[in-house]
Design a protein that fits this description.
Layout: H1 36-52, H2 60-95, H3 101-133
Transmembrane segments: 34-51, 63-82, 102-126
Keywords: Membrane, Transmembrane, Transmembrane helix
Region (Disordered): 1-31
Length: 134
């Protein structure tokens, strides 16, 4: 039946949500949170050091550690971590082409191992930086 002035015009179908890219990565429009985990570890290590030695961490040293250090850690280690996560997701998609529960479990374990290694690396770098600042 053709459209007439008595009937409302037909509504277009709703747009489809974006399909996930191969390898479990986000679509091109999705944003990744880069540097949140390394920055959190950096800030926690600095805060614990400050609670132990407040007199040595006051003044310009604290500002340099928190402002410059957190920015550098978030950018450098965050971007390296993002590329590693994407590479692992791509390798996982090649090894397990069909996603299932086992693939999700393996992916979760790999992401947890990467996060633990990244946290240890940032904690060691933070301790070294605090030692260098004196």
């Amino acid at each position: 039946m053709p459209w007439s002035a008595q009937q409302p015009p037909p509504e277009p179908p709703p747009p489809e949500p974006p399909k996930p890219a191969p390898g479990g990565t986000k679509p091109a429009g999705g944003a990744d949170m880069v540097g949140v985990w390394p920055s959190a570890v950096w800030i926690v290590v600095g805060t614990l050091f400050y609670l132990d030695n407040p007199q040595t961490f006051a003044g310009w040293k604290g500002g340099v550690y928190y402002v410059v250090g957190t920015t550098v850690v978030a950018l450098v280690i965050g971007l390296v971590s993002l590329n590693l996560r994407r590479a692992v997701a791509g390798m996982l998609a090649e090894v397990f082409p069909r996603p299932d529960r086992f693939t999700a479990l393996v992916g979760l374990m790999l992401r947890l191992m990467l996060a633990a290694a990244e946290g240890m690396l940032v904690a060691l770098l933070a301790r070294w930086t605090l030692g260098a600042l004196g």
